[in-house]
Specification:
An 8-stranded mixed β-sheet has the order 3-4-2-1-5-6-7-8. Strands 11-10-9-12-13-14 form a 6-stranded parallel β-sheet, with helices on both faces. A 3-stranded antiparallel β-sheet has the order 15-16-17. Mean pLDDT is 87; it is low at 386-442. It is an alpha/beta fold. Strand 7 (139-142), helix 5 (145-154) and strand 8 form a beta-alpha-beta unit. It folds into 3 domains: 4-164, Rossmann fold; 180-363, Glycogen Phosphorylase B (Rossmann fold, 3-Layer(aba) Sandwich), CATH 3.40.50.2000; 394-439, no CATH class. It has helices spanning 23-31, 70-84, 96-104, 127-136, 145-154, 180-192, 213-218, 220-226, 247-257, 274-280, 296-303, 316-319, 334-347, 349-366, 369-384, 392-396, 430-439, and strands at residues 4-9, 39-46, 54-57, 60-65, 88-92, 109-114, 139-142, 162-164, 199-204, 230-235, 263-266, 283-286, 308-311, 326-329, 414-416, 419-421, 427-429. The longest helix has 18 residues, at 349-366. Keywords: Capsid protein, Virion.
Length: 442
């Protein structure tokens, strides 16, 4: 049986491969090659400096186009798709592309893979267009249960189309510090970066208000009173692949200047350098706002054996196990709880190690690119196997059958410790579900 042809259409914001791209392109670059040989994938994206019009990326054909005008980019991709003849076209994070691509390739099934809530917001797409796009999609993939719920609030009629597929991490690149090789790498990075003999709290991400770095900087005075050897390292810039600043990032730098011995800013670094920064840290902090759909950076930090403190927001609640791999803190009490949990971890090296080991284990169990590819292939196989469409009972037996947006905590869910095992092979924190249920009157 010949492999299914699948086209992956990226937004056209960044080329592939690129060390300066967003997580959207990274997800495509890392997991798509793992679909072979079951699938014959092809990637469509932006042409970049020193990149040819067409080349192989990890044994996958990648075709590139100019993207100065997005309408022209989508049209050119549509023409190229006709030549390839895919059975499935997966559009990455741009619902507006579905209408044009379906029009130019009517015989192909069309999937939408949402990486965030940004491009389903009114700023980017009208409610009418959104509903048309979702009606046109044969399958809608989201990267968290949180994003699934958000989508259902906007378009409840799309419920039966939605599947959750978590992104992952390369565990060989993001190695554990709890091996002989990892310990040596950690010593190397700490010495090279001038972090030896310091307790290092790390934030790595974009310097935008949503990420909440100002909360971390505001509690530095309280932390250094107890831990004078503390160094808060802020790695990132407002924009991908750029050192440009904004009013917000300049405000952060001004806040940090008061404590120069305890705060260090490192402008945007290429993705290849990210593992080294996490290896050099002792604790990772992500005080993001409620719109964080997944938070891949938390998985990357956990892969290196770091405990993570993050806000009880968005998809991060599905990654971090409170009290096991780190802590989830409430946004309304963010400064007080962040201070409390940081002081606890800074004081207790054994607890940091215990949580760090569990972090690495959780990543290996749930959040690798191999897991991502496996889940995607199960969805694809159900899509091409038409038997279940004539047999509702067989369809009901599939593990991907969605629970309601806010699950009934007394029915249809398997409990294991303090987690809910979802039918999408993902894990949701039970505490979060209970809180959501109570909020909604459940």
């Amino acid at each position: 049986m010949s492999p299914v042809k699948v086209a992956f259409v990226t937004p056209g914001a960044y080329p592939i491969p690129s060390g300066n791209s967003s997580s959207v392109e990274r997800v495509v670059e890392k997991f798509v090659p793992l679909l072979r040989p079951s699938v014959e994938p092809r990637i469509y994206g932006k042409i970049g400096r020193n990149l040819p019009r067409r080349s192989m990326v990890n044994d996958v054909v990648c075709e590139r186009f100019h993207t100065a005008k997005r309408s022209a980019y989508v049209a050119n991709v549509g023409h190229a798709l006709k030549k390839f003849g895919p059975q499935i076209i997966q559009v990455e994070n741009r619902p507006t592309y579905l209408l044009k691509l379906k029009r130019s390739n009517p015989k192909a099934k069309i999937w939408l893979n949402l990486h965030s809530s940004t491009y389903i917001s009114p700023r980017h797409i009208s409610d009418t267009q959104l509903r048309k796009s979702f009606a046109l999609a044969d399958r809608i993939i989201v990267n968290s249960e949180f994003l699934r719920t958000l989508v259902l609030e906007k378009v409840p009629e799309a419920r039966m189309k939605i599947r959750v597929v978590y992104p992952g991490v390369e565990t060989r690149r993001f190695q554990s510090r709890y091996t002989a090789e990892g310990e040596a790498a950690r010593r190397h990075h700490r010495e090279r970066k001038g972090l030896a003999h310091r307790k290092v709290v790390m934030f790595l991400g974009r310097l935008i208000p949503l990420k909440g770095v100002h909360h971390l900087l505001s509690i530095v005075p309280r932390l250094i009173k107890v831990h004078p050897d503390l160094l808060v390292v802020i790695v990132g810039s407002p924009f991908y692949g750029s050192h440009r600043t904004t009013a917000y990032s300049r405000k952060l730098i001004k806040m940090g200047e008061r404590y120069k011995k305890h705060v260090r800013f490192v402008p945007y670094v290429p993705y290849s350098e990210v593992p080294g920064w996490f290896m050099a840290a002792d604790i990772s902090v992500m005080p993001s706002g409620k719109r964080e759909a997944f938070g891949l950076v938390n998985v990357e930090a956990m892969a290196t054996g770091l405990p993570v403190i993050a806000t009880r927001a968005g998809g991060m609640q599905e990654i971090i196990q409170h009290g096991e791999t780190g802590y989830l803190i409430n946004q309304k009490e963010i400064k007080a709880e962040l201070t409390e949990k940081l002081l606890l971890l800074l004081h207790n090296a054994a607890l940091r190690r215990q949580m760090g080991i569990k972090s690495r284990q959780r990543v290996e169990q749930l959040f690798t690119w191999e897991h991502t590819a496996k889940r995607w292939l199960k969805i694809q196989r159900n899509e091409v196997d038409l038997k279940f469409r004539d047999d509702p009972e067989q369809f009901d037996e599939q593990i991907y059958m969605e629970p309601p947006p806010v699950p009934d905590l007394n029915q249809g869910i398997a409990y294991e410790d303090e987690q809910v095992i979802s039918y999408d092979m993902g894990f949701i924190n039970l505490e979060h579900l209970k809180a959501t249920s109570q909020k909604d009157g459940g």
